Amino acid sequence: MAIPSSITRLGKYEPWHLQVSREQIENHKRLFKFGFNPDINGTEETVWDAGGIYAYPSAAVAMTATTNAGTPANDNGVKILIQGLDANYNEVSQEVTLAGAGTATTTQTFIRVYRAYVSGSQAPTGNINITNGGTTYARVSLGDNQTLMSMWTVPAGYTAYLTHLNIATGTTNANQYIIVRLVAREPGGVFRTQLKQSIGSGGVADFVIEYPLPFPEKTDIEVRALSSGSNNLVSSDFSVIYIKNVSA
């Protein structure tokens, strides 16, 4: 008797999520965002590597990447790719090369920066802060060569669907807990809690969202946390599929 064979084995089928990642599904994009905050205490902070509540630009501005290495010139030649949104909330990116005193400024302006990473073969010897007017909008941490920002903004013309959220904590202190919130702000609105979870020290919370949460264009999404004690580590990641809106 013949053994039935699946069409997957014959190469005629691939999982839909894989097709999206391979850019085979028109007008569909995927996103995996991950963040880490090494020192969560009793005041709520965004889960990102620079600490504190994240501050968003109020207008599109140029960004300056600067090393904090002890000898800044040692990082001259380091290439950093900055990704974000322009004044119209369209996706943009620019690669800059550190020079002079270990700095480089973009010609592209950004109203949002949600990722930056080392894009060349030279690794920096210090953190790379991406700033404008004294405010840090991203940090490429030494050794990671990549920002750790559990936050993102939906580009113009798209609707995002959150499909998965994971949160993990760590501490050397006993009997502490973390309160974590997924928050979102639509244009012209305020940050509103989408999910709120308490986690014991060293705990993990994982959410597979069977009916994905929709977020309209230009919505800011981020994960925030606070602790009942001090010196807690919090990491968070989330997955999104964003789909181009149908034109009117």
Radius of gyration: 20 Å
Distance between the termini: 56 Å
Report the principal-axis shape.
Answer: globular
Pattern of helices and strands: HEEEEEEEEEEEEEEEE
Index terms:
248 residues, mainly beta, Jelly Rolls, 2 domains, 5-stranded antiparallel β-sheet, 4-stranded antiparallel β-sheet, 1 helix, 16 strands
In a few lines, what is going on in this structure?
The chain has 248 residues and is mainly beta.
What does this structure look like?
- With 248 residues, this protein is mostly beta strands.
- It has two domains: 25-54 and 151-244, Jelly Rolls (Sandwich), CATH 2.60.120.20; 61-140.
- Helix content is 2%, strand content 52%.
- It contains one helix and 16 strands.
- The chain has one helix at 16-21, and strands spanning 28-40, 45-46, 61-67, 79-85, 91-97, 103-110, 112-118, 128-132, 135-140, 151-153, 158-170, 177-185, 192-200, 204-215, 220-227, 232-244.
- Strands 2, 10, 12, 13 and 15 form a five-stranded antiparallel beta sheet that branches.
- The mean pLDDT is 93.
